[in-house]
Amino acid sequence: MKSNLLPTGMSPNDVAKKLGLSVQSVYKYIQDGSIKAKAVPYGDERTIYVISETAYEEAAGLLKPSESQRPKRFEYYHPSRDIILFQKFHSSKVPEARVKRNKDNEWGFYLANIQKWLPFEKGIREYQLKPVYPIHQSTFEHKGYVELDIPKDAIVFYPFVDYLYETWGMENIRLREQDQTIQLFIRAGERPLTIKGFFVDDILPFLIKGDIYNEEGHLILRSSYRELPIDLLESITELAEQEGISMSKWVEQKLSSILK
Hints:
The protein is α+β, with helices and mostly antiparallel strands and 260 residues long. Helix content is 30%, strand content 27%.
């Protein structure tokens, strides 16, 4: 008689949650050898994969995004539900709900007024939550990025991100949630600043790279690399991401090697 006891180790689902990946991606990485897993017979016909702690640590070093890499879309966007982290929802029952993931990396809503997290389906079904604004705009011409690092408890964060989602669109934003702060990479460009709730001066303390200013009712974001040709910017961005470093670090390294 075959035992139905689960073998010890981590499942692909466990690894997906820890690395912030989809389960489908984990299976793909198992198949191509990026994640070492043991195939174990389970039951009469099933085979399951078990990942040891050592194998997980190796995979995490290879696949988990480093702080210097620009965020990938799966980190902040759920395509089948068309929701993005911190997006604002509401209903007649709930004045404000924010899209958030829980400690198990499950998508849902956080209701600040009662300090409660809800699974996504429950929020839609029982609380009739609906998005406050659309989150899609056309992709800007690539002129580099402006980078910010905003504390999670900063009063300006939610008004600013609401404006960005609605006016800039998620196509022009990359976001990474960290322990204490939120990293934002925003495509350089300009849009009308018609939504109230924040001032440019409120954002400037959190600016890491680039320029932000208000000119005649328009919010203008300029990259530190705006003087470079667009095709060169795109090439540098791709090369930097391949090496797992920031664009500025890549340029610094190349220039240093030339000047030596």
